[in-house]
Amino acid sequence: MYALVDAVSFYASAEKVFDPSIRNKPVVVLTNNDGCICAVCPLARRLGIPKFIPYFQVKALLEKHSVVIRSSNYELYADLSERMMNVIGRFCDNQYIYSIDESFLYFDHYESCIKDWHEYGKQIRKAIWKETRLPVGVGFGDTATLSKAANHAAKKLSGFNGVAVINSKTSRDEILGRMNVDDIWGIGRKIAKRLRLEGISTAAQLAEQDAKHIRKQFSVVTERTVNELNGINCLSWDEVKSPKKEIFSTRSFGQRITTKDELRSALVTHAAIVGRKVRRQNSLIKKLMIFASSSPHDDLYYKQAIAYPFILATENTCEMANAVNQVIDTIYQAGIPFYRCGVGAIELTSKMFIQPDLFMPDHTNSNVMKCLDNINHRYGDSTLKLAAEGQHERWQMRRAFLSPQYTSQWRDIPKIQC
Protein backbone atom coordinates (compact mmCIF):
# COMPACT_ATOMS: atom_id res chain seq x y z
CA MET A 1 0.00 0.00 0.00
CA TYR A 2 1.18 3.51 -0.88
CA ALA A 3 0.20 6.79 0.73
CA LEU A 4 0.66 10.38 -0.33
CA VAL A 5 0.47 13.10 2.30
CA ASP A 6 0.15 16.58 0.81
CA ALA A 7 -0.40 19.95 2.50
CA VAL A 8 -3.46 21.99 1.53
CA SER A 9 -2.25 25.11 -0.31
CA PHE A 10 1.01 24.83 1.59
CA TYR A 11 2.39 28.36 1.19
CA ALA A 12 -0.92 29.99 2.16
CA SER A 13 -1.46 27.56 5.04
CA ALA A 14 2.09 28.19 6.30
CA GLU A 15 1.35 31.92 6.49
CA LYS A 16 -1.49 31.17 8.92
CA VAL A 17 0.51 28.99 11.32
CA PHE A 18 2.03 31.78 13.42
CA ASP A 19 -0.64 34.38 12.67
CA PRO A 20 -4.00 33.14 14.03
CA SER A 21 -5.60 36.49 13.14
CA ILE A 22 -5.68 35.49 9.44
CA ARG A 23 -6.67 31.82 9.82
CA ASN A 24 -10.28 32.59 8.94
CA LYS A 25 -9.43 35.07 6.19
CA PRO A 26 -8.70 34.52 2.47
CA VAL A 27 -4.94 34.48 1.85
CA VAL A 28 -2.88 34.49 -1.33
CA VAL A 29 0.90 34.20 -1.73
CA LEU A 30 2.88 35.84 -4.53
CA THR A 31 5.82 34.49 -6.53
CA ASN A 32 9.30 35.99 -6.78
CA ASN A 33 9.32 39.79 -7.00
CA ASP A 34 5.60 39.72 -6.13
CA GLY A 35 4.82 38.95 -9.76
CA CYS A 36 2.07 36.32 -9.83
CA ILE A 37 -0.21 34.48 -7.42
CA CYS A 38 1.30 31.06 -6.64
CA ALA A 39 -0.85 29.90 -3.70
CA VAL A 40 -4.52 30.42 -2.91
CA CYS A 41 -6.08 29.19 0.33
CA PRO A 42 -9.51 27.47 0.13
CA LEU A 43 -11.29 30.60 1.37
CA ALA A 44 -9.70 32.69 -1.37
CA ARG A 45 -10.42 30.01 -3.98
CA ARG A 46 -14.14 30.32 -3.27
CA LEU A 47 -13.91 33.98 -4.29
CA GLY A 48 -12.85 32.86 -7.76
CA ILE A 49 -9.22 33.96 -7.42
CA PRO A 50 -7.09 31.88 -9.83
CA LYS A 51 -3.48 30.78 -9.44
CA PHE A 52 -0.62 31.83 -11.70
CA ILE A 53 -2.19 35.13 -12.74
CA PRO A 54 -0.23 38.41 -12.50
CA TYR A 55 -0.89 40.21 -9.23
CA PHE A 56 -1.65 43.56 -10.88
CA GLN A 57 -4.50 42.00 -12.89
CA VAL A 58 -6.44 40.97 -9.77
CA LYS A 59 -5.26 43.66 -7.37
CA ALA A 60 -8.68 45.37 -7.38
CA LEU A 61 -10.47 42.05 -6.78
CA LEU A 62 -8.19 41.24 -3.84
CA GLU A 63 -8.80 44.66 -2.29
CA LYS A 64 -12.56 44.35 -2.78
CA HIS A 65 -12.70 41.11 -0.76
CA SER A 66 -10.04 42.17 1.82
CA VAL A 67 -7.78 39.30 0.81
CA VAL A 68 -4.55 39.02 2.82
CA ILE A 69 -1.53 39.23 0.50
CA ARG A 70 1.85 37.73 1.35
CA SER A 71 5.19 37.56 -0.44
CA SER A 72 6.86 34.16 -0.61
CA ASN A 73 8.56 33.51 2.73
CA TYR A 74 10.81 30.63 1.67
CA GLU A 75 12.71 30.48 4.95
CA LEU A 76 9.48 29.91 6.89
CA TYR A 77 8.16 27.37 4.37
CA ALA A 78 11.36 25.31 4.44
CA ASP A 79 11.32 25.10 8.23
CA LEU A 80 7.64 24.15 8.44
CA SER A 81 8.12 21.60 5.66
CA GLU A 82 10.90 19.89 7.63
CA ARG A 83 8.71 19.77 10.74
CA MET A 84 5.81 18.31 8.77
CA MET A 85 8.00 15.65 7.12
CA ASN A 86 9.40 14.61 10.49
CA VAL A 87 5.88 14.01 11.79
CA ILE A 88 4.90 12.06 8.66
CA GLY A 89 8.02 9.90 8.93
CA ARG A 90 6.87 8.52 12.28
CA PHE A 91 3.97 6.70 10.62
CA CYS A 92 6.01 4.57 8.22
CA ASP A 93 9.57 3.27 8.02
CA ASN A 94 9.79 3.93 4.26
CA GLN A 95 9.30 7.59 3.38
CA TYR A 96 10.20 9.63 0.32
CA ILE A 97 9.91 13.42 0.37
CA TYR A 98 8.64 14.19 -3.13
CA SER A 99 8.47 17.98 -2.84
CA ILE A 100 8.38 20.70 -0.20
CA ASP A 101 4.79 19.77 0.74
CA GLU A 102 4.39 16.18 -0.54
CA SER A 103 5.62 12.93 0.96
CA PHE A 104 5.12 9.36 -0.26
CA LEU A 105 4.94 6.46 2.18
CA TYR A 106 5.28 2.81 1.21
CA PHE A 107 3.74 0.24 3.54
CA ASP A 108 5.28 -3.17 2.88
CA HIS A 109 3.76 -6.05 4.94
CA TYR A 110 1.76 -3.67 7.12
CA GLU A 111 -1.53 -5.52 6.64
CA SER A 112 -1.35 -7.19 10.05
CA CYS A 113 -0.62 -3.87 11.78
CA ILE A 114 -3.12 -1.54 10.09
CA LYS A 115 -6.70 -2.79 9.91
CA ASP A 116 -8.36 0.49 8.92
CA TRP A 117 -6.46 2.68 6.47
CA HIS A 118 -9.03 5.46 6.71
CA GLU A 119 -8.60 5.68 10.46
CA TYR A 120 -4.81 5.61 10.06
CA GLY A 121 -5.04 8.55 7.67
CA LYS A 122 -7.06 10.49 10.24
CA GLN A 123 -4.33 9.83 12.81
CA ILE A 124 -1.70 11.24 10.43
CA ARG A 125 -3.78 14.38 9.78
CA LYS A 126 -4.45 14.89 13.47
CA ALA A 127 -0.78 14.56 14.44
CA ILE A 128 0.38 17.01 11.75
CA TRP A 129 -2.26 19.56 12.72
CA LYS A 130 -1.45 19.24 16.42
CA GLU A 131 2.30 19.69 15.96
CA THR A 132 2.52 22.09 13.00
CA ARG A 133 -0.97 23.59 12.48
CA LEU A 134 -0.82 22.61 8.81
CA PRO A 135 -3.88 21.05 7.15
CA VAL A 136 -3.06 18.05 4.93
CA GLY A 137 -4.78 15.54 2.70
CA VAL A 138 -3.95 11.84 2.95
CA GLY A 139 -4.53 9.41 0.10
CA PHE A 140 -3.96 5.64 0.14
CA GLY A 141 -3.77 3.43 -2.92
CA ASP A 142 -2.48 0.08 -4.15
CA THR A 143 -0.08 1.94 -6.50
CA ALA A 144 1.74 5.27 -6.32
CA THR A 145 -0.56 6.72 -9.01
CA LEU A 146 -3.69 5.58 -7.16
CA SER A 147 -2.38 7.13 -3.93
CA LYS A 148 -1.98 10.40 -5.85
CA ALA A 149 -5.55 10.09 -7.11
CA ALA A 150 -6.81 9.33 -3.60
CA ASN A 151 -4.96 12.37 -2.28
CA HIS A 152 -6.67 14.52 -4.92
CA ALA A 153 -10.02 13.18 -3.75
CA ALA A 154 -9.14 13.76 -0.10
CA LYS A 155 -8.40 17.43 -0.74
CA LYS A 156 -10.69 18.44 -3.58
CA LEU A 157 -13.70 16.12 -3.83
CA SER A 158 -16.67 16.38 -1.52
CA GLY A 159 -17.41 13.64 0.98
CA PHE A 160 -13.85 12.67 1.92
CA ASN A 161 -12.85 15.30 4.50
CA GLY A 162 -9.11 14.99 4.09
CA VAL A 163 -8.68 11.19 3.82
CA ALA A 164 -9.41 8.87 0.88
CA VAL A 165 -8.57 5.22 0.29
CA ILE A 166 -8.50 3.34 -3.03
CA ASN A 167 -8.17 -0.34 -2.19
CA SER A 168 -11.04 -1.90 -4.13
CA LYS A 169 -12.74 -1.66 -7.53
CA THR A 170 -15.68 0.15 -5.95
CA SER A 171 -13.57 2.87 -4.32
CA ARG A 172 -11.43 3.20 -7.43
CA ASP A 173 -14.38 3.62 -9.78
CA GLU A 174 -16.06 6.11 -7.45
CA ILE A 175 -13.03 8.40 -7.22
CA LEU A 176 -11.70 8.08 -10.78
CA GLY A 177 -15.19 8.71 -12.15
CA ARG A 178 -15.19 12.13 -10.50
CA MET A 179 -11.71 13.15 -11.68
CA ASN A 180 -10.78 14.84 -14.95
CA VAL A 181 -8.17 13.04 -16.99
CA ASP A 182 -5.63 15.85 -16.46
CA ASP A 183 -5.97 15.44 -12.69
CA ILE A 184 -4.05 12.17 -12.98
CA TRP A 185 -0.36 12.13 -12.07
CA GLY A 186 1.68 11.91 -15.27
CA ILE A 187 -1.00 13.26 -17.61
CA GLY A 188 -0.02 16.74 -18.78
CA ARG A 189 -2.08 19.29 -20.65
CA LYS A 190 -0.94 18.23 -24.12
CA ILE A 191 -1.68 14.55 -23.52
CA ALA A 192 -5.01 15.41 -21.86
CA LYS A 193 -6.00 17.43 -24.92
CA ARG A 194 -5.21 14.49 -27.22
CA LEU A 195 -7.10 12.10 -24.92
CA ARG A 196 -10.18 14.31 -25.01
CA LEU A 197 -10.09 14.22 -28.81
CA GLU A 198 -10.29 10.43 -28.41
CA GLY A 199 -13.35 10.81 -26.16
CA ILE A 200 -11.45 10.19 -22.92
CA SER A 201 -12.23 13.01 -20.49
CA THR A 202 -12.29 11.33 -17.06
CA ALA A 203 -9.75 9.28 -15.15
CA ALA A 204 -12.18 6.34 -15.09
CA GLN A 205 -12.39 6.38 -18.88
CA LEU A 206 -8.60 6.34 -19.12
CA ALA A 207 -8.43 3.37 -16.74
CA GLU A 208 -10.82 1.43 -19.02
CA GLN A 209 -8.55 1.75 -22.06
CA ASP A 210 -6.38 -1.02 -23.42
CA ALA A 211 -2.89 -0.28 -22.11
CA LYS A 212 -1.08 -1.59 -25.21
CA HIS A 213 -3.26 0.51 -27.49
CA ILE A 214 -2.53 3.57 -25.36
CA ARG A 215 1.17 2.85 -25.68
CA LYS A 216 0.93 2.85 -29.47
CA GLN A 217 -1.10 6.07 -29.47
CA PHE A 218 0.93 7.92 -26.83
CA SER A 219 3.94 6.49 -24.97
CA VAL A 220 5.14 3.84 -22.55
CA VAL A 221 4.72 6.38 -19.74
CA THR A 222 1.00 6.75 -20.47
CA GLU A 223 0.73 2.95 -20.71
CA ARG A 224 2.20 2.69 -17.22
CA THR A 225 -0.31 5.23 -15.95
CA VAL A 226 -3.21 3.14 -17.29
CA ASN A 227 -1.84 0.01 -15.63
CA GLU A 228 -1.23 1.85 -12.36
CA LEU A 229 -4.83 3.10 -12.39
CA ASN A 230 -5.88 -0.56 -12.58
CA GLY A 231 -3.82 -1.54 -9.55
CA ILE A 232 -0.84 -2.93 -11.48
CA ASN A 233 2.44 -1.66 -10.05
CA CYS A 234 4.60 -0.34 -12.86
CA LEU A 235 6.55 2.26 -10.91
CA SER A 236 8.90 0.54 -8.50
CA TRP A 237 9.55 2.28 -5.20
CA ASP A 238 13.07 3.08 -6.43
CA GLU A 239 11.62 4.79 -9.50
CA VAL A 240 9.27 6.86 -7.39
CA LYS A 241 12.24 7.87 -5.26
CA SER A 242 14.62 8.39 -8.19
CA PRO A 243 16.86 11.49 -7.85
CA LYS A 244 16.35 14.48 -10.12
CA LYS A 245 18.19 14.40 -13.42
CA GLU A 246 18.55 18.18 -13.58
CA ILE A 247 18.64 20.81 -10.84
CA PHE A 248 18.23 24.53 -11.52
CA SER A 249 18.27 27.71 -9.48
CA THR A 250 17.05 30.76 -11.36
CA ARG A 251 15.35 34.00 -10.44
CA SER A 252 14.50 37.43 -11.81
CA PHE A 253 16.02 40.38 -9.99
CA GLY A 254 14.16 42.76 -7.70
CA GLN A 255 15.86 45.56 -9.63
CA ARG A 256 17.94 45.44 -12.78
CA ILE A 257 21.68 44.97 -12.42
CA THR A 258 24.27 46.38 -14.81
CA THR A 259 27.70 45.63 -13.31
CA LYS A 260 29.81 42.54 -13.78
CA ASP A 261 30.46 42.11 -10.05
CA GLU A 262 26.73 42.12 -9.22
CA LEU A 263 26.03 39.57 -11.95
CA ARG A 264 28.90 37.38 -10.74
CA SER A 265 27.60 37.58 -7.16
CA ALA A 266 24.11 36.55 -8.24
CA LEU A 267 25.39 33.63 -10.34
CA VAL A 268 27.64 32.33 -7.54
CA THR A 269 24.68 32.49 -5.15
CA HIS A 270 22.62 30.36 -7.53
CA ALA A 271 25.56 27.97 -7.91
CA ALA A 272 25.68 27.56 -4.12
CA ILE A 273 21.96 26.73 -4.06
CA VAL A 274 22.39 24.13 -6.82
CA GLY A 275 25.39 22.63 -5.03
CA ARG A 276 23.43 22.24 -1.80
CA LYS A 277 20.57 20.48 -3.60
CA VAL A 278 22.94 18.22 -5.52
CA ARG A 279 24.67 17.10 -2.33
CA ARG A 280 21.32 16.49 -0.68
CA GLN A 281 20.46 13.81 -3.26
CA ASN A 282 24.00 12.36 -3.21
CA SER A 283 24.84 13.31 -6.78
CA LEU A 284 27.77 14.89 -8.61
CA ILE A 285 27.72 17.48 -11.41
CA LYS A 286 29.32 16.69 -14.76
CA LYS A 287 28.07 19.74 -16.64
CA LEU A 288 26.82 23.14 -15.47
CA MET A 289 24.60 25.57 -17.39
CA ILE A 290 25.21 29.25 -16.57
CA PHE A 291 22.97 31.91 -18.09
CA ALA A 292 21.73 35.49 -17.81
CA SER A 293 19.36 37.67 -19.82
CA SER A 294 17.58 40.98 -20.06
CA SER A 295 13.79 41.10 -20.09
CA PRO A 296 12.10 39.67 -23.21
CA HIS A 297 10.02 42.86 -23.22
CA ASP A 298 13.10 45.06 -23.69
CA ASP A 299 13.69 46.65 -27.09
CA LEU A 300 16.96 44.77 -27.49
CA TYR A 301 16.58 41.37 -25.84
CA TYR A 302 19.86 39.82 -24.77
CA LYS A 303 20.48 36.30 -23.54
CA GLN A 304 23.67 34.31 -23.10
CA ALA A 305 24.01 30.74 -21.84
CA ILE A 306 27.14 28.63 -21.52
CA ALA A 307 27.49 24.92 -20.71
CA TYR A 308 30.57 24.37 -18.57
CA PRO A 309 31.85 20.76 -18.37
CA PHE A 310 33.87 19.57 -15.38
CA ILE A 311 36.83 17.28 -16.05
CA LEU A 312 35.86 15.35 -12.93
CA ALA A 313 32.27 15.33 -11.67
CA THR A 314 31.99 17.50 -8.57
CA GLU A 315 29.75 18.56 -5.71
CA ASN A 316 32.05 21.33 -4.53
CA THR A 317 30.50 24.81 -4.46
CA CYS A 318 33.95 26.37 -4.77
CA GLU A 319 34.53 24.63 -8.11
CA MET A 320 31.11 25.78 -9.27
CA ALA A 321 31.97 29.36 -8.28
CA ASN A 322 35.20 29.02 -10.24
CA ALA A 323 33.19 27.90 -13.27
CA VAL A 324 31.11 31.08 -12.99
CA ASN A 325 34.34 33.09 -12.83
CA GLN A 326 35.61 31.37 -15.98
CA VAL A 327 32.58 32.30 -18.09
CA ILE A 328 31.48 35.65 -16.61
CA ASP A 329 33.38 37.68 -19.23
CA THR A 330 31.51 35.87 -21.99
CA ILE A 331 28.08 36.21 -20.37
CA TYR A 332 28.35 39.82 -19.22
CA GLN A 333 27.88 42.63 -21.69
CA ALA A 334 28.23 46.27 -20.73
CA GLY A 335 25.10 48.38 -21.01
CA ILE A 336 22.69 45.46 -20.65
CA PRO A 337 20.17 45.83 -17.78
CA PHE A 338 20.10 42.21 -16.64
CA TYR A 339 16.66 41.02 -15.54
CA ARG A 340 17.25 37.33 -14.85
CA CYS A 341 20.05 34.82 -14.33
CA GLY A 342 20.51 31.27 -13.15
CA VAL A 343 22.61 28.16 -12.84
CA GLY A 344 21.60 24.59 -13.68
CA ALA A 345 23.21 21.20 -13.18
CA ILE A 346 22.19 19.65 -16.49
CA GLU A 347 24.21 16.46 -16.32
CA LEU A 348 24.23 14.60 -13.00
CA THR A 349 25.67 11.29 -11.93
CA SER A 350 25.33 9.25 -8.77
CA LYS A 351 28.08 9.72 -6.21
CA MET A 352 27.94 5.98 -5.51
CA PHE A 353 29.08 4.93 -8.98
CA ILE A 354 31.61 7.57 -9.99
CA GLN A 355 34.92 6.35 -11.41
CA PRO A 356 37.91 8.38 -10.09
CA ASP A 357 40.81 9.34 -12.34
CA LEU A 358 44.20 8.00 -11.28
CA PHE A 359 46.10 10.96 -12.76
CA MET A 360 43.72 13.83 -11.94
CA PRO A 361 43.59 15.33 -8.43
CA ASP A 362 40.14 15.22 -6.84
CA HIS A 363 39.08 18.63 -5.55
CA THR A 364 35.58 17.56 -4.50
CA ASN A 365 36.50 17.90 -0.81
CA SER A 366 33.35 16.23 0.46
CA ASN A 367 34.18 16.74 4.13
CA VAL A 368 34.38 20.52 3.74
CA MET A 369 31.06 20.60 1.89
CA LYS A 370 29.48 18.37 4.53
CA CYS A 371 30.70 20.74 7.25
CA LEU A 372 29.32 23.74 5.33
CA ASP A 373 25.90 22.09 4.93
CA ASN A 374 25.73 21.00 8.57
CA ILE A 375 26.47 24.50 9.87
CA ASN A 376 23.95 26.14 7.54
CA HIS A 377 21.35 23.53 8.40
CA ARG A 378 21.80 24.12 12.12
CA TYR A 379 22.11 27.91 12.17
CA GLY A 380 20.22 28.90 9.01
CA ASP A 381 20.99 29.28 5.30
CA SER A 382 23.89 31.59 4.45
CA THR A 383 25.36 31.44 7.96
CA LEU A 384 28.48 30.39 6.05
CA LYS A 385 28.85 31.28 2.39
CA LEU A 386 31.45 32.06 -0.23
CA ALA A 387 32.86 35.59 -0.26
CA ALA A 388 31.99 35.72 -3.98
CA GLU A 389 28.29 35.58 -3.08
CA GLY A 390 28.64 39.13 -1.73
CA GLN A 391 27.31 40.85 1.36
CA HIS A 392 25.03 43.51 -0.10
CA GLU A 393 22.61 41.75 -2.41
CA ARG A 394 20.99 44.69 -4.18
CA TRP A 395 19.79 42.24 -6.81
CA GLN A 396 17.71 40.23 -4.34
CA MET A 397 14.04 39.79 -5.21
CA ARG A 398 11.37 42.26 -4.17
CA ARG A 399 9.12 41.04 -1.32
CA ALA A 400 6.90 43.95 -0.30
CA PHE A 401 4.39 41.76 1.58
CA LEU A 402 6.87 39.55 3.43
CA SER A 403 5.64 38.13 6.72
CA PRO A 404 8.03 37.69 9.70
CA GLN A 405 10.50 34.81 9.49
CA TYR A 406 9.24 33.38 12.76
CA THR A 407 11.56 30.39 12.95
CA SER A 408 14.76 31.57 11.26
CA GLN A 409 15.36 35.14 12.49
CA TRP A 410 15.90 36.07 16.15
CA ARG A 411 14.11 39.39 15.64
CA ASP A 412 10.98 37.59 14.41
CA ILE A 413 10.59 34.97 17.14
CA PRO A 414 6.94 35.11 18.32
CA LYS A 415 6.46 36.85 21.66
CA ILE A 416 3.82 35.50 24.01
CA GLN A 417 2.40 37.70 26.77
CA CYS A 418 0.77 35.77 29.60
Write up this protein.
The structure is a single chain. The protein is of the alpha+beta class and 418 residues long. It has a domain at 247-389: DNA polymerase, Y-family, little finger domain (Dna Ligase, domain 1). Helices cover 38% and strands 20% of the residues. The protein contains 15 helices and twelve strands. It has helices at 10-17, 42-45, 55-64, 74-89, 117-132, 144-156, 169-176, 189-197, 203-207, 211-217, 220-229, 237-240, 260-280, 317-331, 366-379, and strands at 2-7, 27-30, 37-40, 68-71, 95-99, 102-106, 136-141, 163-166, 247-257, 283-293, 303-314, 338-350. A five-stranded mixed sheet has the order 5-6-1-7-8. It has a four-stranded antiparallel sheet with strand order 9-12-10-11. Helix 10 runs antiparallel to helix 11 (220-229). The chain starts with a strand and ends in a 39-residue tail after the last helix.
Low-confidence stretches: none
Total number of beta strands: 12
**Head-to-tail CA distance between termini:** 46 Å
Oligomer: single chain
Proportion of helical residues: 25-40%
Series of secondary-structure elements, N-terminal to C-terminal? EHEEHHEHEEHEHEHHHHHHEHEEHEH
Q: What summary fits the major beta sheet?
A: 5 strands, mixed
Radius of gyration: 23 Å
Strand order of the largest sheet: 5-6-1-7-8
Query: Any idea of the CATH class of one domain?
Result: Alpha Beta
Approximate shape? globular
Count of runs of 4 or more consecutive helical residues? 15
Structural class: alpha+beta
Q: Estimate the strand proportion.
A: 15-25%
CATH architecture of one domain: 2-Layer Sandwich
By CATH, the superfamily of one domain comes out as: DNA polymerase, Y-family, little finger domain
CATH topology title of one domain: Dna Ligase, domain 1
Protein name: DNA-directed DNA polymerase
GO biological process, one term: DNA repair
Family: Belongs to the DNA polymerase type-Y family.
Enzyme class: transferase
